[in-house]
Structures are given as C-alpha cells and as structure tokens.
Amino acid sequence: MAATPSDTRKRVREIADQLLAAGTAPTSTLVRKLLGKGSFETIVGELKLWEADRQRPLPNKRDPTAEALDRVGAQQAAELIAQAADASKSLTAAVASVRLAASEIASFPALVATLTEQVRALTQVVEDDRKAMRDELAKANARYEGVQKYAMTAIEAARAESRMLQEQLAQTGDKTGARESAYRQQAEDLRVLVHQLQGRLAEQGKRSDDVVVPPRLDFDQKRPVRLSSYEPTGRTT
After folding, report:
1. In sequence order, what DSSP letters do the residues of 58-119 get, joined into one string?
2. Which residues fall within 8 angstroms of residue 32, CB to CB, at 6 or more apart?
3. What's the CA dihedral at 66, 72, 78, 84 to 10 degrees?
4. pLDDT tens across 30-88, in order?
5. Model confidence over 204-223: pLDDT tens digits?
6. The pTM is what?
C-alpha cells in the first residue's frame, strides 16, 4: 500500500522530533535517509513547517512536568494557606490571651490590696478570739482558785470545829463521870442513913410496944439509879 502525502509529512515530523531529542539538527538529507522515501520538496517543505510550529508558543499545551509542578505548588500553597489561617487563628487566640492576662495583671494590685485587707481582718479576728479565750481562761483560773481557797478554808473550819466538838465531848464525858460518881456516893450515904434510922426505930420499938416499926427497906439489893431524874443536894458537880 503506497504512503499518502499526509503520512509522509507525519513521519517527517516524527523523525525531526527524534533527531532533535537526540541532539542532532534535522536536515532534509538526514530525514530523507531515515525516511527511506519521499521527495526532497515534500520533506523540505514539511521541515520548514515543523520548524515554524516549534518556534511558535503553544498556549494550550503545557509540559507535563510543569503541570505536575504547578499542581504540587498549588497543593502546597493551599496547605500553606490553611496553615497560615490556623496560625492566624492561633495568633488571634494568643493575642486575646495576652490581652486577658494583661488585664488580669493590671487588676493584680487591687486584688492584692483586697486580699491583704481580708488577711488583716481575719488576723484581727483570730487575735481577738485568742484574747477573749485568754481572758476567759484567766477568769476560770481565778474562779477555780477562789473555789479552791474557799474549799480549803471550809475544810480547815470543819477540822477546827471537829476538834472543838471532840474537846467539848471529852469535857462533857469528864463532867458526866464526875456527876455519876457524886450520885453514887450520895445514894450510898442515903442507904447508910436509912440503915441508921431503921436501927434507931427498932431500938425504940423494943422499948415501947405501942410504937409501930415500919417495914425494913431492903437497901442491900442494888437497883439501877436514874441519875437524870435525881439531883443531889448540898454537892457540887
């Protein structure tokens, strides 16, 4: 099948691109040799058109490498833009934090003054409470000492009164013993006197039968004498 002119022109362009890529300038003779056929007029004319097309910029056709670099650059640019946006947000937040901190720092002197006043007031309250407790403790100690002194005085008074009562009891016992002895002695004297009187009456009865002798009282039986109902006369206790 014979080659058409369009096929020849296409092959001329392909051979020219290959030679150029290999670093060799495409000439009509070299292209004709590689092509193996075709007229020099067709080859020369197509090489001129190829050279003109090569010199003309192709706005609609870009190098794949450049396009890839553009895509990578665009992606990186988008990432950088996103990072910049995040950084801007972080910076805005940091600025707000700094402003808030600055505001708080500006309010620190007033806050410190307020806290100092509160501490002073609390310290005064604690000191007042301690003083009140010390006063109450002193009063309690004074009351305790007063009660203790009163108790010691009462104990000493009770002891003195006990000693006095013991002495009085001893003296009363001595007086009671002396009084009982006096009562017994007087009773003995009365018994002797009664014996004497009865003897005299007996003698008088023997002399006169008209005399009635009273019955003899038995004073030999020792009966208990109630000293509380009898007071001797003529004796001192």
Report:
1. -TT---HHHHHHHHHHHHHHHHHHHHHHHHHHHHHHHHHHHHHHHHHHHHHHHHHHHHHHHH
2. 38, 40, 43
3. -110
4. 999 998 888 889 999 999 999 998 887 655 555 667 666 777 777 787 788 888 888 88
5. 777 765 545 455 555 454 45
6. 0.28
b/e string for 3-17 if b means 16 or more Cβ within 10 A? eeeeebbebbbebbe
Task: Locate 137 and state its tokens.
Answer: 């403790």
What residue segments make up the domains of the chain, in order of their start?
Answer: 5-58, 134-237
Q: In one letter, which amino acid is 90?
A: S
User: What residue spans of the chain are helical by DSSP H?
Assistant: 5-21, 28-35, 40-55, 64-207
The maximal CA–CA distance of the chain, rounded, in angstroms, is: 233
As a whole number of angstroms, the distance between CA 120 and CA 27 comes to 106
Contact 219, 191 (CB under 8 A): yes
